[in-house]
Specification:
Blueprint lengths: L4 H23 L9 H28 L3 H12 L10 H16 L4 H72 L11 H31 L1 H38 L7 E2 L5 H7 L2 E5 L18 E5 L7 E6 L2 E6 L3 E6 L1
Parallel strand pairs: 1-5
Antiparallel strand pairs: 2-3, 2-6, 3-4, 4-5
Length: 344
Amino acid sequence: MDFNVKKLVKDAGVALSRVVQLTEETLGTSEKTELDAHFEHLADRANATKSWTEKVLRNMEAMLTPNPGNRIEDFFYEKIDKKKPNRLSNLEYVGIDMIEAGNDFGPGIAYGSALIKVGHCQQKLGQIERDFIGTAANCYIQPLRKFLDGEMKTISKEMSILEIKRLDLDSCKKRVRKARSMLGQQSESGISPEVILDQAERELRVAQSEFDRQAEITKLLLEGVSSSQAGHLRCLHEFVEAQTRHYAQCHAAMQELQRELAGVSGSSFHPTTSINSNQLMENGQQQARVVFDYKAKNGDELSVLQDEVIRITKIPEDDDFILGFQGNQCGRVPKAFLEILSYK
């Protein structure tokens, strides 16, 4: 292989000059060209955007895929451009075990039937979760990763080039100052100090031009970070919408499960109030949604949680409370804490 010795020597000399210039700046023995305040502001904002985007991205990936091993595996498959494995979620594994247990106990008994119903619900929740993870990855994670791997890497590269141009510029300024200080003196090389100064000034003009050009290129890229943030805002809205749909679907699935479990045969209720069963049958039952959390204040009341759906029936001669059924328990609940939905 042929080597251009002169070019290698020149490049080595330039690199050494940059190192010397940077060292002198660090020690405070050499002046440093400062960028304008607007440029520095853009650079600081870009660095903050990069730092926070990386942190948000890591936390989002950990939230959607808690298992670190699975995240590493997914990363590996992405790098080799291969489809990710279709692994089951923890909810789906729980659902499978519950269904198998229910079938083993016997779907004809209350507990076996309930296990099967809950197991199917867990599988449904697992699929809802899988759909949400895929949507979140497409609408938010991928755009953030593309931003970091594309735009921010380009900015970092151009900033590095700008720093090199700045070091070259300051090195030229130093040579010009030195050449001016030698005017009127005898040069050791035999070259006239005026000639040395003229050459140093030409090199300074070239270095200044290259620095200004690189600063303008980098500045335009830094200003583009604002438009990237606007794009990230749209992606964030899409993520929130996907998360809203996800929790709404989960809530609907759990409400449906509550209704199914309420009809499982073999359920027994032990009222803590003095209302007898004939009164309950006469009054009939309805369903109600809990509007606010309520904690029972005595033994004949029932504690309920917000958004929980319970069965209710009227209590004769009591306009403030209603009798609520929750699993195998029942008790009085203030009417003001409930929203009546429909007759059962």
